[in-house]
Design goal:
The structure is a homodimer. Chain A is mainly alpha-helical. Chain A has helices at about 5-10, 15-35, 40-45, 60-85, 95-110, 110-120, 125-135, 145-170, 175-190. Chains A and B meet through helix 2, helix 6, helix 7, helix 8 and helix 9 of A and helix 2, helix 6, helix 7, helix 8 and helix 9 of B. Chain A binds a DNA duplex through helix 1.
Chain lengths: ~190, ~190
DNA sequence: GTCTATAAGTAGATAGAC
DNA sequence: GTCTATCTACTTATAGAC
């Protein structure tokens, strides 16, 4: 047949698109928007390099970035929602807090690629900033209680731990995750007010 | 005279070099290495744009990055050492701890440009990673005491607060710096062991 | 849906006049 | 020490055959 994939070099509809988006997200996170090249994405996907093979799927480099970010955000949202549902009902307050922190830390890990991308290309994808902050931000109406500040400190500590670990290429200052979480949970509770 | 700056277009030796390095650090921090263009640096310095005016001062873009980073690191080291000397001797432990945290937070602010650059171009300037971590890292020989972990938590929280504030474009979750520092200092002390 | 060929623009870098 | 002119390589993007 003339439409046989093996003879025409074509693949099932939509499958290549997904692989392009995954590879693109990788490259963008690694080297940023300007550092990324269409050729490199083509290379990782297995398309012909240096030619516009990719442009049959996306009209421009910017459109590729937008689509890759959108896909990543949607994917992470689903992942997080699923993980949340599994926790929630633990009796011991200290253990519940520790588990919550563990969740948040894993969320940071999940967001890693988007995180890096936001740092380098924040203004290029305004939607990106919002999407990320919906997860971390907690705006308290009215006056901030000490408890709100403590919660923010915990969140900042987890974000810092994640980032510093990433930079050092090992657990931050050699402190294992479990240890960090346990001490942090002990530090931030019990509530004072 | 034929050597008059006004007629030859030349400037005092070394002065242009400094202005180039400052402008380059700015651009690199803003858009990363690949995003930065020699032309943009020339524009900010006031040199002819689009031509290799800059190459009379630095042999390559990479050399420019290296020199800019080295200058920034040296400058920050001096600044920090000076700031440290001014604190140190406060009687009240709580207040001393709060002051220490304030110092660290300000250090993070100072390191901001290098910080961003390391996140985006970490592998391109290996020296950069080392230089930054000399300031934050604290490797404890032997077993980690709870106090060491608490100190790391404080450092991580300050780093996270700084970064999140940067991203949100305002104090993290609306919490003013003084409030954050005061609550954090209360949380991490007094030492338990 | 993938490939070859190629156009158009941009960025790093060099040579040489002033 | 700065400028004009220019080279080369790379990158985005398009046209069209298979």
């Amino acid at each position: 047949m003339t439409t046989d994939p093996a003879t025409t070099g074509s693949r099932p509809r939509g499958q290549t698109r997904e692989r392009i988006l995954e590879a693109a997200m990788e490259v963008f996170a690694e080297v940023g928007f300007s550092g990324a090249t269409i050729s490199e994405v083509e290379r990782r996907v297995g398309l012909a390099v240096g030619t516009g093979s990719l442009y049959r799927h996306f009209p421009s480099k910017q459109a590729l970035l937008d689509a890759a970010v959108e896909r990543e955000v949607a994917s992470l949202r689903a992942e997080m929602a699923q993980a949340r549902a599994a926790v929630a009902e633990v009796a011991d307050p200290l253990e519940r807090r520790r588990l919550g922190y563990e969740q948040s830390l894993h969320d940071f890990r999940r967001f890693d690629r988007l995180f890096r991308l936001m740092l380098t290309e924040g203004e290029r994808v305004p939607e990106l900033r919002q999407a990320i902050w919906a997860a971390v931000q907690r705006d308290v109406p009215g006056a901030l209680g000490d408890r709100d500040v403590v919660d923010a400190i915990a969140m900042a500590a987890l974000g810092g731990y994640h980032l510093f670990s990433l930079m050092q290429g090992r657990p931050f200052n050699g402190i294992p995750e479990e240890r960090f979480l346990a001490v942090l949970a002990g530090l931030t509770g019990p509530p004072e007010n």
